[in-house]
Amino acid sequence: MKTIKDSVHDHIVVDGVARALLDTPEVQRLRHVKQLGTVSLVYPSANHTRFEHSLGVYHLACEALSQLGIEGRTAERVHAAAILHDVGHGPYSHNVEDVIERHTGKHHEDVDDLVESGPVGEALCEHDLEPGRVADLIGGEGQYGQLVSGELDVDRMDYLVRDAHHTGVPYGTIDSGRLVRELRFVDGELVLGEGNVQTAESLLVARALMNPTVYSHHVARIGKSMLRRGAERLIANEETTPEGLRRMDDHDLLVALRTADSTERLAERLARRELFKRAVWSEYRDVPDDLLELSHEEVTEYEAAIADRAGVEPGEVILDLPGYPRMTESTTRVVVGGEIRRLEGQSPLVRTLRQVQLNQWRLGVYTPAGATDRVGHAAEAVLGLDTDGTLISDAVRGLHTTLDRFGADARRE
């Protein structure tokens, strides 16, 4: 048994298979992978890691299993899945995940190859746990996989509170204790017990507030886009392999970027926080529908066309096109009047927050500071943005944005 002091949950007792897994290289690697990636460029204290988050998820899993009355090997499988749930993450967490997935076909929850062999597989087998079944739980499969990866998972309960704590923002606060206490299994579904519609809504509100201020802050998005550009170059120039990139930690990726000729300048910019700037920051309503589902190859072609029209180097334009906003928490099941109902059908707040998410959505085009004016107008023409004259340039900062966001965004930088 080992007791670890945690900044969020106080003392966490690690025992059994979780204790054996704690010191495996796969789990220890998570000490060197930031939980929030480039968000630390905005919030300097956001340097917490996937390792401490994994401990928090394990702690909440133990609490949930205890109050649900689940013990024995089933509980140990969930304990193992909780500790291991993030071992599939690449460097900087989600920041280069789409690069890895595009080249390897593996999402960060696809961890069969990481848990079925080596020290992790050995530790699981020594505790009479089947690695394949643990991997399935990490992927959210089966009744108990819902605890690790689902609408009411303990992963979400930990990261919202932990991210708010380390960034210092007051928006991610949820009552994780009540959420855990009110969990129920009904006909194999993980639900919140009677009288907890507002408890479920709190997850939605916390996420909706954290998204624009933390997860999708424009500076973090620019840093993320630059990291993705660097990772793509490393693979294209055979400086690393997609699988090699997947197993890097943050430090490994920075070293690789600094030592490759094609990414040396990009690495220097990231290290010095000499980031690209926004040339376009366009609302969902201003973006043509055919741009919303572009492939990676099509995005690259648009970047080249914008660069050519603006008269800048092709590598100096980044088109950042986020996916359609999703709200997985809206499908959370709650017991109302003795019936299991989906939150989205029970709560008017869900509809409001969906619209809020859509209003927060932005297409970004980034480029070095001196080229924002040219690139902004070139991007507007090439992409066919329907801005109705609301795309403006600030003479001092060379910033293209929409009028209704200009004041708030300019103050926040």
Protein described:
There is one protein chain. Helices cover 52% and strands 11% of the residues. The strands form 5 sheets. A 3-stranded antiparallel β-sheet has the order 5-9-6, sandwiched between helices. A two-stranded antiparallel ribbon has the order 1-2. The chain is mainly alpha-helical and 413 residues long. The protein is globular. A hairpin with a 2-residue loop joins strand 7 and strand 8.
The end-to-end distance, rounded to whole angstroms, is 46 Å
The total beta strand count reads 11
In one word, what is the shape?
globular
Average pLDDT rating? 91
Structural class: mainly alpha
Extract low-pLDDT stretches: 389-413
H/I helix tally = 21
Major β-sheet strand ordering = 5-9-6
Fraction of residues in β-strands: 5-15%
Summarize the structure.
With 413 residues, this protein is mainly alpha-helical. The chain contains 21 helices and eleven strands.
Topology:
Layout: E1 2-6, E2 10-14, H1 16-22, H2 25-28, H3 50-68, H4 72-84, H5 97-104, H6 112-115, H7 118-126, H8 131-138, H9 142-148, H10 154-167, H11 176-181, E3 183-186, E4 189-192, H12 197-215, H13 218-236, H14 242-246, H15 250-259, H16 264-272, E5 277-283, H17 296-310, E6 318-320, E7 333-336, E8 339-342, H18 343-346, H19 348-360, E9 362-367, H20 372-383, E10 392-393, E11 400-401, H21 403-412
Antiparallel strand pairs: 1-2, 3-4, 5-9, 6-9, 7-8, 10-11
Helix pairs in contact: 1-4, 3-4, 3-10, 4-8, 4-9, 10-12, 12-19, 15-16, 17-20
